[in-house]
Design brief:
Layout: H1 2-10, E1 17-18, H2 27-31, E2 36-37, H3 55-68
Parallel strand pairs: 1-2
């Protein structure tokens, strides 16, 4: 979060995306700073990057992201 916050301070008018470590438990905190995020394994079945996307996990994640906005 420190790096993300530092970039946003230097570039306040430029969209900043978080590209790693964004999970269900951290998305609200990340979205308070970032304009968006890149998400991978958090949306997959059992959180495994090689599995298919789990619609329930994806829906829950997006609900949390939207609530943080």
């Amino acid at each position: 979060m420190e790096d993300l916050e530092a970039v946003k301070v230097v570039l306040p008018d430029i969209p900043v995306l978080a590209n790693t470590g964004v999970k269900h438990d951290t998305v609200a905190e990340v979205m308070r700073v970032a304009n968006g995020c890149i998400v991978g394994s958090s949306l997959k079945v059992d959180g495994d990057t090689w599995n298919a996307v789990d619609p329930d996990r994806a829906r829950d994640f997006m609900d949390r992201a939207k609530a943080a906005r």
